[in-house]
Amino acid sequence: MNTFTGIPFAAATFYAELAKNNNRHWWLAHKDIYDSAVRLPLESLLAQLAPVFGQSKFFRPYRDKRFSPDNSPYKTEQGVFASNYEGVGFYLRVSAAGLSTGGGYHSYSPAQLARYRTAVDAPVSGEILVKIVKSLVEEGFTIDCESLKTVPRGFARDHPRADLLRHKTLSASTLPGLPKWLDTPAAAQEVAARWEQLRPLVDWIVRYAAP
């Protein structure tokens, strides 16, 4: 029996305070809040959504400081990823700003990037993606991507889908923030509804540009 009752507003407060006290002493003194307001509610939520959206992965709360001048040890958000496919799926984040949901892919291989560009270049699959992206923007999603400054070599600069060809990664997200339903069981349905809006994008990537 699932016991998801919502994501407490205390989760946002926890991350707001962490941003001001990003050190091991503070983290250890408040880890019980992380467990009760962040980790356990999200684990319960993802277990409830897993039959439809796939198994989940929790991103580590610890920062990788090896390639960053920022020495703060902890991430100021908790990210999770749910998927039935390797590397492509649905995202959820909790931070001081509240809840963020998204979907798509954030990393790629050269082979995947080649498949993506071929699919964008092709008239049928390319136009399908144009319609998906346009629909998501109209529904209030932000298109997130790592992209080139110019159209990649081998494609015309005036290509009708030049903007999409420049993308190296592709995802979309929305920030519900701190709505009244966040700390209620209805949060599961709200997250599921937003992920369903993203399903056409995820399915397109799986079909035409899988890792």
TrEMBL record:
Organism: Arthrobacter cryoconiti
Pfam family, one: DUF2461
InterPro entries noted in UniProt: CHP02453 (IPR012808), UCP028451 (IPR015996)
Lineage of the species this protein comes from: Bacteria, Bacillati, Actinomycetota, Actinomycetes, Micrococcales
Identification of the protein by name: DUF2461 domain-containing protein
